[in-house]
Amino acid sequence: MAEHVKVVHGDEVSQGWLSKVGLGRVRGFVTTTTTFIFFFFLVVIAALIWMDVVSPFRFTSPSSKIHREKIHHERIQFPLNCSCFVNYMTDFEPEESSAETCPDYFRWIHQDLKPWKASGITRDLVERGIPMADFRLVIVNGNVYVERYRPSFQTRDLFTLWGILQLLKLYPGKVPDLELLFYCGDNTVVMKRDYEGHRATSPPPVFHYCGEKAALDIIFPDWSFWGWAEVNIKPWEETLRAIKEGAERIKWENREPYAYWKGAPTSADRGDLLNCNVSDKHDWRVRVYKQDWGKEIGEGFKHSNLEDQCTHRYKIYAEGRTWSVSEKYIMACDSMTIMIQPEYYDFFSRSLMPMRHFWPIGRRNKCRHLKFAVEWGNNHTHQAQAIGKAGSKFMEEMLTMRNVYDYMFHLLNEYSKLLKFKPTIPPNAQRICSETTEQGLAKEFMLQSMVKSPSDKLPCTLPPPYESRAIQVSLNAKEKITKLVETWETE
Questions:
Q1: All domains in the chain, ordered by first residue
Q2: CA 19 → CA 11, 26, 45, 194, distances in Å?
Q3: List of the chain residues with pLDDT < 50
Q4: What's the whole-model pTM score?
């Protein structure tokens, strides 16, 4: 998959000059020079010890083995083209005391893996999921292998695997051996109805980007956190930074007092939005723009920069075929997000609360609901602005790349505990590395999102699972708030 670059340690010194001088003079010179260097070396070491910046490699007794200690102010950098040698950093140990508690949405990891908690996961169970999967991922001794079954849409599989490789670089030697199946499409594939009833069997574990109430897909962070080359969306950290800068250009109160949406009408909900645009007969306080990606690609993405779309007080989130990666970009703008009731969720959105992080509206009568939300916001500017800022703060603070990697780490770690077989490398699998032969934006985004050194602290501490009652209480609360908003509109 990639070319390896040989790394040469140390300097090569030419010895040809010995033939041009007398051997005795050379010996005398070497003796004098060696003595000088020896005493100079002692002075330097003494100074380094006094300054407390001595090398992290020190000798310990009585074993006389080299022991590596972590130096907080010196991060060990990975060579750019040696990432396939993951195991050479497995002795890097951050301090135990550095771990923090993970955000609350990490609790859903336990819930997503609950179908296999009692029985465990056998090899036969994994094999039954192959017809649903795009590829099989195997991690053995810190090395990553992939067996592909069918092409995924665009470069979703490529960037998903890239993210997993970066996880192994961030926490070298910490990700356990495992074997899993992954699906990169839109629709959920493991449906509950197929594994219920008197002839029910255990469902196959298949990883995917989104879930729904009727499905059992295991939710994993989507590819766009490392970039979406086909539509010129940079890796999440870079995109978030740009959106925050874009949001600061226009103060909330000076933005257009309308609800904004721009995208491809790939679903009924999005198609309905086009009917809510301003016309000679109606002004639903909505400004909707249809995205022509073919035109954008041809013109170099001049009119699709996400950081230029923070110009309205309100932004609309509408699902595409299923869930949409646009959710995090929309909510990062500081504008109040008006969310059309979603059917699907990703790994973090289950912890978003209506009227705290977004304004909820129903799927029917969208135009009327949108108009009421905008008019309410324009009459309650402080409350509307607070909702927008809370949603943006969640994206900025709870959805850091550190948390994305920690979610991946804990999900894979908890999943591996359920395996009742030893992961092995399939005959048709290929080993993949962080060196990339991609070109253009794909290569650029990979370099931008590359983990350049191991973590200086442990992953956050995984919180315990939700109790069943707590989940139901949360769902009831969301439903109650949504109905309350509908009551305001009716009254």
A1: 97-222+402-460 (no CATH), 234-345+349-398 (3.40.50.2000)
A2: 21, 10, 34, 83
A3: 1-83, 85-89
A4: 0.82
